[in-house]
Amino acid sequence: MDAAQGRKTTGHWEHFSHGADIGVRGYGPTLEEAFAQAAVALTAIVCDPGSVRVAQTVAIHCQAPDRELLLVDWLNAIIYEMATRRMLFAGYRVRIGGDELHGNAAGEPVDRRRHRPAVEPKGATLTELKVGPTPDGGWFAQCVIDV
Prior knowledge:
- This protein is of the alpha+beta class.
- It has a single domain, classed as Archease domain (Archease, Possible Chaperone, Chain: A, domain 1).
- The chain has 2 helices and 7 strands.
- The protein has helices at residues 31-46, 67-85, and strands at residues 12-18, 21-28, 56-63, 87-97, 100-109, 125-133, 139-146.
- The strands form 2 sheets. It has a 4-stranded antiparallel β-sheet with strand order 1-2-7-6.
- β4 and β5 form a beta hairpin.
- The longest helix has 19 residues, at 67-85.
- It is globular, with a radius of gyration of 15 Å.
């Protein structure tokens, strides 16, 4: 909550090109929201998150010694769920404490009548991980994805 303005701040995400690869970047007022928005950006490479209904939730737990490795474990867990369960996700809730991340990914299995996957979520290589504060006091989480 932005106390001065009395309104809730929200995160956002973006893609950026990196040669032949795609970069994903999430921004948020908290580290957790930045991680959640990076996962939305990852989903958006496969399918429009707005077309996904929230039918079930998948719990994800990750543990890593630093923020960048925690980000790669988190995004790899999302990729694994998309590839093995054929899931698409509409949103994420993330809680980070120390070196642990507890997340919930909300979505539904692929429905080819409504979803038009741009790429098949079979796997990816994640590189160039960066996590840090933004000049406005928020956070960003980004990586490059070779799909």
